[in-house]
Design brief:
It contains 1 helix and 3 strands, in the order ββαβ. The chain is of the alpha+beta class.
Length: 80
């Protein structure tokens, strides 16, 4: 999985709840209004999935959700 960023706390993406945001790289769309256009080509080294997973496990019971954004998250293999 190509994780290009992790925002460990967001108060905006999951209204009235604490969450984090995972930014995936690459995307087959080129939306002119995209807020994550720097992730379209994902030139940087991806974050280590084991470290991201460890962070998420350490926040069980503290975060109410995880927001996926950036690239086509469903194209990354995250969901099987």
């Amino acid at each position: 999985m190509n994780i290009q960023g992790l925002q460990k706390l967001t108060l905006l993406d999951f209204p009235d709840r604490l969450a984090c945001t995972i930014f995936t790289g690459f995307c087959n769309f080129r939306c002119p209004y995209c807020h994550n256009s720097s992730l379209l080509v994902a030139e940087g080294d991806p974050l280590n999935w084991a470290e991201v997973k460890s962070f998420l496990q350490s926040r069980v019971g503290k975060l109410a959700g995880v927001c996926l954004t950036g690239g086509g998250a469903h194209f990354t293999g995250l969901f099987g």
